[in-house]
Amino acid sequence: MTGAARDTGPGSDRASSRPSGSEQLLFGGELAYDQGWSQHHGAWLRLGLRSMAAAIPRQVGIAVRLAHRADRRALYTVAAGEFGRGVTQAVSLVAVNALLVELLAQGSTTERLRAALPSLVVVAVLSVIGSVLKSVSAAATGILQPKVQRVATERYLALVARVELEAIEDDAFHKLMDSAQWGADSARRMVGYCTAVVTSVISLVAAAGVLTVLHPVLLPLLVAMALPSAWSSLTMARHRYVSWHRFAQHARAAQLLGRLLIDQQAAGEVRVHDVGPFLLGHFRGMADTNEREQTRLAWAGARTGLAADAARGVATVLTYGVLGLLLWHGHMELAVGGTAVLAIRSGSASITDLVLKITDLQEESLFVGDLETLCVEAERRAIPATGRDVPEQVDQIRFDNVTFTYPGAPEPSLRGVDLVIPRGSTVALVGRNGSGKSTVTKLLCGLYLPDDGRVVWGDVDTAEARRTQIFDRIAMVAQNFHRWPFTARVNIGIGRPGAPIGEEAVDAAAAYAGADEVIAALPRGKDTLLARGYRGGQEISGGQWQKIGLARARYRDGRVLIVDEPTSALDPAAEQRVFDQIHRLAGSGQTTVLVTHRLHSVRQADLIYVLDEGRVVEHGTFDQLMDPATGVGLFREAYELQARQFRTPPVPGQRDGTAAFTSEGQTAP
Ligand SMILES: Nc1ncnc2c1ncn2[C@@H]1O[C@H](COP(=O)(O)OP(=O)(O)OP(=O)(O)O)[C@@H](O)[C@H]1O
Predict the structure, then answer these.
(1) Distance from Cα 615 to the centre of ligand 1, integer Å
(2) Per the CB 3.0–4.6 Å rule, which of 23, 337, 475, 625 could disulfide with 553?
(3) Where in this protein does the record put region Disordered (predicted)?
């Protein structure tokens, strides 16, 4: 979203309204966050005018710290330039006063002009100096801004990349990431606003100083002129911010609808199923909510602005009235009165500017504040960088009575799981859909920690381990492995992102996985970009991607290879080849964990664990699990069902080979 989009984000105060039909149907309810969430997550909605104003020094501090980290020299240049400008403005006012005194003094016009000439020269020189300083400061600000944005972005991205997977799946953390994304952009703009605030403050101090010297009563009047604008600007900033925050998720969802309409993967279904009008209709439904809120904000802005203008008008009349009275009663010289008018005009312009810039600063700083909150939260939820060292090679990895529930899930996904993965063995995990196989692999590599029980590498519990070392030992082809929108070479080489990509190693890994043939057929070989929608980008099939994914895992060359349904999209020959390769690796001492529904492929596994509803219900070698003496277990049943499909012609209505593992709580007949 752009800044403009943010400003027009869907609206706020809907405590009494209901979710729109689109929200209800598509997302199951209201997408706005209720106040409970905000209260729970701290002070970001406590936006009283006083607290907003009191927060300004801290906000300027944040911007200055970021700028200091980004480019110290540019920061000092801006500071010196703005300070110099303020000084020139103050001295200019004094010189103007002297000029007016000379011009309004007794004597002939020639004499008065001659007397005023030095002051005139001073005013002219100061004006030139002021312009030069302004340009220098503007240039340094321009240099500083993108650097500040980069520093802020890098900081939060680096932190977010290290948080526990659990945090990434937590919608409250997502909400924080949504709002924090604006923080980096806001930090960039804050630099400009800070500069402008400093400029306005300095010129205001100059004007106020001159006014106080001219007559002390003028200063409070100047402040009275400024207060209404300050109030209206801050009030509207607060409304906008609260509104944006309450609807951040709604805005994201509305954008999602727009994106889905042009999404490449959805394109086929959008056309064949005619999903376009459906999505567009709901896009309109979501937009209606947004527009209603914008209308509310617009009217609130108009009312606030009108009230502020009225109050400012009264204060202006009062100010000039007092000035008139002072002149009328001879408490002030005419020349001094002229300077006072100039000082009031310059002071009130500075105040208006100051208020506007402070409001902008305030608004941006709220988002920078979110960025700070995200950084703090990301640090709190980071995967610890320390812990017990994990040996390069461990004799076994063990699950001891492991129970695990995904955050927010109503039921545990693993219940009292015990299993052992001996070094150099191939261990297969089989079971129905949702039985917990992938969850076991995620706990195995330390992406999640058990709620109960232990996952132990050698004698090191993953909960105490230096988990980066566990990650280091793992090569994984997850079920939903990532299809990086980069070249084929990078898609394989990214398996070891810390090292330069080795051509030979990439070729060997590709050959291992059968991806060499895929690459050979690409127009630019390994240099082909595997992303449609970019120039020269190419799309490959699901099975071809799977080969690339396998090649990536091979290239990573981890001590433990986890392959989660590695052949689901492969043709029979490719599938056979992959399993042969995996078993050959096992022969070379590689520890492999294989998750699959293809039961014939686990014949050669050293150990098979059968999971059902989060529990290990059977385990043993293939022969043990198939031994009729041990009774008809889940594995044997499923295996025979699959085998029968190959032996007998298909019967109408017969379930597929995984039926014994996929039907809800039933086993095959
Ligand atoms: N990120 C998640 N958040 C919440 N629940 C999840 C998450 N991932 C999986 N689950 C739930 O945990 C249970 C086990 O899922 P898991 O992916 O481990 O099953 P699986 O045996 O690998 O299934 P499949 O054969 O379909 O891949 C399921 O009930 C699933 O709905």
Answers:
(1) 13
(2) 475
(3) 1-22, 646-669
Enter the tokens of residue 201: 């403050």
Atom 11 of ligand 1, residue of closest alpha carbon = 413
Distances (CA, A) of 484 to 222, 333, 492, 569, 574: 60, 76, 10, 18, 22
Q: Nearest C-alpha to atom 17 of ligand 1 is from which residue? A: 438
| CA 464 – CA 458 distance, rounded (Å) | 13
CA distance 648 to 33: 56
- Spatial neighbors of 107 by CB under 8 A, at least 6 apart, are 115
Per-residue pLDDT tens over the stretch 560-571: 999 888 776 677
Mean pLDDT of the 455-482 span: 90
> Are 625 and 636 in contact, with CB atoms under 8 Å apart?
yes
Q: What does the DSSP assignment read for 537-570? A: B----HHHHHHHHHHHHHHHT-SEEEEESTTTT-
Report the separation in Å between the CA atom of 435 and the middle of ligand 1, taken as the mean of its atom positions: 7
**Distance from the CA of 318 to the center of ligand 1, in angstroms?**
72
Among the residues of 567-633, which ranges form H helices?
572-587, 622-626
Q: What span, in angstroms and rounded, lies between the C-alpha atoms of 412 and 398?
A: 19
pLDDT computed for residue 654 by the predictor: 47
Using pLDDT thresholds of 50, 70 and 90, give the confidence band for residue 380.
very high
202-246: per-residue pLDDT in tens? Answer: 777 877 777 787 777 777 877 887 788 778 877 887 788 778 777
Taking the centre of ligand 1 as the mean of its atom positions, its distance from the CA of residue 436, in whole angstroms, is: 6
Ligand 1 cavity residues, CB under 6 Å: 169, 406, 409, 413, 431, 433-439, 479
Please state the atom number of ligand 1 nearest to the C-alpha of residue 436.
18
Q: Which atom of ligand 1 is nearest to the CA of 169?
A: 1
Q: How many helices (H) and strands (E) does the chain have?
A: 24, 10
Buried b (16+ CB within 10 A) or exposed e, 255-270: ebbeebeeeeebeeeb
Index of the ligand 1 atom closest to the CA of residue 597: 25
Please give the angle made by the CA atoms of 640, 643 and 645, to the nearest 5 degrees: 115
Q: Whose CA is nearest to atom 7 of ligand 1?
A: 406
Residue ranges of the alpha helices (H) in 216-333? 218-246, 248-262, 267-272, 275-328
Predicted TM-score (pTM) above 0.90 = no
> What's the complex ipTM?
0.98
Measure the CA–CA gap between 208 and 215, rounded to whole angstroms. Answer: 10
Three-state DSSP state, 415? strand
Degrees, nearest 5: CA angle 305-309-310: 120
CA distance 425 to 396: 9
**Measured distance CA(251)–CA(35) in Å, rounded:** 17
User: Phi, psi (5° rounding) for residue 75?
Assistant: -65, -45
DSSP letters for 521-544: TSTTGGG-B--TTSTTB----HHH
Query: Ligand 1 pocket check: which of 399, 435, 476 to mutate, most ligand atoms within 8 Å of Cβ?
Result: 435
Give the distance (Å) from ligand 1 centre to CA of residue 564. 12
- The contacts of residue 231 (CB under 8 Å, 6+ apart) are 49, 304, 308
Atom of ligand 1 nearest to the CA of 429: 21
